[in-house]
Amino acid sequence: MGIPSERIDRLFALAREAVVDDEYDRAREYVALARRIAERNRSGVPAEFSRKTCDDCGVYLRPGKTSRVRLRPGRVVVRCRECGSTARYPFE
């Protein structure tokens, strides 16, 4: 694990804490900074974090606070409460 991946992990941890404290703008800044570090170093955002952030508005998704999660046959539907975008992920 290199320095960029450590920084990305730390920024997503800070974004999670900011959402718990109801500071959504600060969480968006942490997520944007983590994505920028990933782009600059060509490492990419880990899959565990990419599904926890909204692709449109960049807020860290926390079920019940910033997102709504529903189970459908063969998929999970996640809706952002900030911007209203919907993401669907397959599962078995």
From TrEMBL:
Please state the span of the N-terminal signal peptide per the UniProt entry.
none
Q: Kindly state one GO CC term assigned in the UniProt record.
A: ribonuclease P complex
Q: What is its EC number?
A: 3.1.26.5
Q: Which residues bind Zn(2+)?
A: 54, 57, 80, 83
What keywords sit in the KW lines? Cytoplasm, Endonuclease, Hydrolase, Metal-binding, Nuclease, tRNA processing, Zinc
GO biological process annotation, one example: tRNA 5'-leader removal
Indicate the family of this protein: Belongs to the eukaryotic/archaeal RNase P protein component 4 family.
**Record's protein name:** Ribonuclease P protein component 4
Q: Which organism is it from?
A: Halorubrum saccharovorum DSM 1137
Q: What's the gene? A: rnp4
